[in-house]
Amino acid sequence: MKKVKLGLLLGLVVVLVAAFALPGCAPEVAPPEEEEEEEVPTGPIKIGINFPLTGAKANFGTMDWLSIQLAYAKFGVEEVGGRPIRFVIEDNRGDPATAKSAFEKLATLDEADVVLGGYTSSCGVVQAAAANDLKVPFLICNSSKDAITMEGWEWVFSGARVPASHYGDNMWPMIDEVLMPGGVSKVALFYEMTDWGTSSAEALRANFEARGIELVYDEPYDSDAIDLKPMLAAVKAAKPDMIMAVSYLMDASLIARQAGELRLNVLCFMGQAGGYTMPEFVVNAGENANYILTTALWSPFAPWEGELAGVKWTNQEYYEGYLGSYGAEPDYHGAQGFAQWMICLDALLRIDAAGETINRETIREALTETKLMTTMGLIEHKDWCDDMGHCYTNQGLPVTYVTQWQNLVQEWVWPVEAKSADYIFPVPKWEER
Amino acid sequence: MAKKSWFLPAILGIVAIALPPFLGGYFQHILILVMMWVAMATGWNLLGGYCGQASLGSAAFFGLGAYGAGMLYLHWGISPWWGVIAGPLLAIVVAIPIGLVTFRLRGGYFVLSMLAVCETIRIIFLNWVEMSAGPLGIVIERTWGMEKLPYYYMVLAIAALSLYVVYRLMKSKFGYYFVSIREDQDAAEGLGIPSTKYKMYALIPCAGIIGLAGAFYMNYMAFIEPNTVFPLIISATMILSVMLGGPGTFWGPALGATIFVLLSELLRAFAGPVIGTIHYLIFALILVLVIMFLPNGIAGEGDKIKRLFRGKKPVYVGGE
Amino acid sequence: MALFGQTIICGFLMGGVYAVIAIGMTLILGVMKIINIGHGHLMMVAMYVCFALFTSLGLHPYIAMFVAMPCLFGIGYLLQRYSIHRVRFVDTILPQTQVLLTLAIGLVFVEIIRVIFKSDFRSVYTPFSSKCLYIGDMSISLPQLISFGIAMAFVAGLHILLTRTDFGRSIRATAQDLDAAKYMGVDALRVSSLTFGLGMALAAAGGALLLPIFYLFPDIGVPFTIKALIITILGGAGSTVGALSGGLVFGMAESLGAVYWAPGYKDVVGFVIFLLVLLFMPGGLKTVIKR
Question: Is A218 helix (H, G, I), strand (E, B) or coil?
Fold first, then answer.
């Protein structure tokens, strides 16, 4: 009887392995054929989509994917060079090991020509490494980890994504010209305990110290924390002139609300993009959101517009299109997704216009020459180094700016050349609002 | 335990060694994950299944193993392959004091205390940036890029080693002591078996094996951060694999881990496009049904009659 | 001084809400010796019920609570009767099968909610949510204060139920000695199912009290499960007074940890308390209080 049992188990294992193995034998035969130069692929152009579409991280992964679909519909290009465009969707649940499985499947089994993905830093870094190994062009949308483009991976393109340490780039002129003359000399810095928070804080800390601004509070916190008041009470006791906060979505609202409850009065409260720029922020923080300044990667007010594939577009249209199609406001994650499809489509069209075959190699070459106006501003894939000694490959640098919540609307206040409203500084005390 | 059926492991071994070179990269990757979980489930089974000390915090050993390898590279630039030694070592060194404290507790309280220990370690690794790079994680250079077979054979060796270690231990007197502690700790102590000491003898190989799998994970994935190597879901996956296959059986955990990985991937990658976002719901439902109706796992139900000679529960399992 | 006072106030108010969540767990653990890892997940389900009522009918969570509690009572009753109970008395190799079952059940509920409500973040924000009372430099959040009051009412109500009614006595009898209670004519399955339902209803109350001051997403449960477990162990399984004092002590410990140690390490405070209590005071606070 025991043998029957074990035989059954063995049979089960063999069946499961075979379920994977049989289709798996096919792709191994395919690569040698590709080496023949004259072979012109006729099948569809496969675009791999590798995002968390279920699981705890699904909200932004889904926003990326919806924005890509919106962009696909907007530009209406359904085939390039006689080959239809086909999306192959892989859900990675926000887990790095699964993201790698999904990438391997896209690269070998589905033979994707290019892959779009990259939400959460840990998935992004694993996907990017796999892309470089498997020689598949990979357009990374959100994952902010600096190191992703610091490894010299030439198959990874990060035009619309901003490395975490550059989220606040355009805030420094404002600090120099407005806040410091206005009396800011002590700053309280707190940041969520993630890669993005920690990398951001490193860059912020260095820049504050270079200006001789004293950091009177400098702590990471857990973004799942239920009550942030104790931390804010400690911040209040440190008597800062300015608060610099790096927060995820809902903890940002909680901090804004609880700062109001504690009457945590400062000359200015500066958020670092992330939670402070999102539509949900104002819904959850209510009037406490008012006067909060935040660095931003994108806003519906950004004056970007252009033409791609014969279709004129504006940044505002993307915002309205998303709101109209899905009944929710997008934030910068979605704008990055939209921009990445533009960059991808632009590369495909340029290859076709040059009369070349569309394959992984030509897509990679075309992407290195990208120079395109997108919802994230003008994107180029370049190699450059910053003053922190970080050297990036194929990295664009979308323009960042500073916005302020005024009467529950996120107004663009810096740089002043493109402002939609004047900044308010110093902000009124909580008691006087 | 599989006594005379030497031909089964032999066939499995031959298949495991000979098949992968003919597979595509994706399937090799899946098999690598399968083998990694086989090793971890087998390791967990030693302490949890045989010795009865079910731990909901074994991700601690996995993470420590991974960080043992990663921190070598981070601080001293030493190849993370040395982590194959350093990882398990770190896991064992940390496991010993953990065991000394938590083994004083029994049953459910032991389960919870291990969960608390694991979460504490995760928070320390997140916050202590100088030691572990905190949430920035550790990125290493991979030895082999596209080539998966070396990784596969390495993890196959780890899985085989873990099975061998468990097999030998369970064949020795330790095995009988472990089971006696599981069945009735007080009776075992009454017979002169120092239970904490023998639990420790089960914990050390368990932590070592899981740590080894962690060190392999570091080398293979080339990126770790505390939230990906210490989460509750890793501990839970280990346990659920064992539950699925059969706790306290030799082949059960390996079988459970294989089914667990393949089934979740099948549902995600192949059924997912058809059934959409509910694929994980179906997976979770299957888990609930297995625990409810096959509480001793697929392999464990075969031995049910023997074990349940005093029970009233009828045996309902197919293929009798 | 203002900082210390503020810290204590925050911890105390939060502790009251933790206590309601934990009291459901202490009941289940104390009476049935079931460690319910799905506790936080089921609380999350209750929060979604309140959220749905808020968005569709505009009911404030404090009112929607009285819909969510019967819902969760029903879910809890059915779960215990048809699922968890089944595993409890099956002779398994691992005695902890029920722990894993509740874990898997929790996963199922998370995924069901995810399919219905997506993974988006939600909250119930009303202008009232950030009203405060001020004592000098310290602030007391009004919704937290009200939550605290309602929480105390539930704790008192449960205490009376357990000590003054027949049903309460049969629950306590089952907790003390299952076999003896059976001989005395207590229908153990019915009592345990009702107790499980009651525990879940209390978790639902906790969730509803949390909703106006916090936010909501499908994976919210795990930290609350862990907090409830710590409080249960701290207070002593099965004791309402223990859970209340445990909740308050834990809330304050967390709060003090965040201010005087580091916000990142504050959860460690809870775990250390948990391990110390398990090792050196296995009965929890209730043993101290009884004396």
Answer: strand
- Across the interface, whether the CB atoms of A129 and B222 are under 8 A apart is answered yes
Over residues B20-45, mean pLDDT: 92
Choose the most confident range, by mean pLDDT, from A386-390, B287-291, C11-15.
Answer: C11-15
Instruction: Provide the pLDDT for residue A7.
Output: 54
Taking CA atoms, B231 is separated from B215, C151, C175, in Å, by: 16, 31, 33
Answer with the residue of higher pLDDT: B319 or A318. A318
d(CA B124, CA B76) in angstroms, rounded, equals 21
Q: Could you tell me the two tokens for B11?
A: 């066939």
List Cα–Cα distances, B188 to B18, B176, B199, C110, in angstroms.
45, 10, 12, 41
What integer pLDDT is reported at residue A34 of this predicted model? 43
From the options 3.40.630.40, 3.40.50.2300, 3.40.50.300, 3.30.70.100, give the CATH code of A168-296+401-432. 3.40.50.2300
Binding partners of A (≥3 Cβ pairs within 8 A):
B, C
pLDDT band at A12 (very low <50, low <70, confident <90, very high): low
In Å, how far is A235's CA from the nearest CA of chain C? 9
The domains of chain A are located at 45-163+303-395, 168-296+401-432
Q: Across the interface, do C130 and A260 touch by the CB < 8 Å criterion?
A: yes
| DSSP-derived secondary structure for A165-217 | GGTTTTHHHHIIIIITTTT--EEEEEEESSHHHHHHHHHHHHHHHHTT-EEEE
Q: Which of B5, B22, B23, B74 to mutate to test the interface with A (most CBs of A within 10 A)?
A: B23
Instruction: Quote the CA–CA distance of C286 and C270 in Å, as a whole number.
Output: 18
**pLDDT top residue among C135 and A28:** C135
- Tokens representing residue C153 in the block: 């009412």
Residue A11 has what pLDDT?
54
Domain ranges of chain C: 2-290
Is B236 in the C-facing interface, judged by CB distances under 8 Å? yes
H/E stretch holding B47:
none
**What is the DSSP secondary structure assignment for residue A243, as one 8-state letter?**
E
The B residues from 64 to 93 touching C (CB cutoff 8 Å) are: none
Torsion sign, CA atoms B34, B37, B39, B45: negative
Instruction: Report the distance separating Cα C206 and Cα C208, nearest Å.
Output: 5
Identify the residue whose tokens are 């079910």. Answer: B54
Q: Report the pLDDT value the prediction gives residue B297, as an integer from 0 to 100.
A: 79
- Are residues C279 and B119, on separate chains, in Cβ contact within 8 Å? no
Under CATH, to which class is A45-163+303-395 assigned?
Answer: alpha beta
Mean pLDDT in residue range A372-381:
92
Q: What single-letter amino acid sits at C36?
A: N
pLDDT above 50: residue A22: no
**pLDDT for res A29:** 39
The ipTM assigned to this model is 0.89
Q: Counting one residue from A and one from C, how many pairs have CB atoms under 8 Å apart?
A: 111
Per the listing, tokens 């749905």 go with C52
CA distance B49 to chain C (A): 7
The answer to whether C101 faces chain B, any CB pair under 8 Å, is yes
Contact (CB, 8 A) for A376 and A398:
yes
* Closest residue of chain A to B250, computed from CA coordinates: A6
Closest-approach residue (CA) in chain C for A61: C119
DSSP codes of every residue in A284-311:
HHGGGGTT-EEEES--TT---EEEETTE
Nearest to A109 among B24, B262, B299 (CB): B24
Contacts of A94 in chain C (CB under 8 A): none
pLDDT at C185: 79
- B277 close to A53: Cβ distance less than 8 angstroms: yes
| A18 interfaces chain B, CB cutoff of 8 Å | no
Q: Among 3.30.460, 2.40.50, 2.50.20, 1.10.3470, name the CATH number for the domain at C2-290.
A: 1.10.3470
* Contact check, Cβ <8 Å, A14/B15: yes
Average pLDDT over chain A reads 87
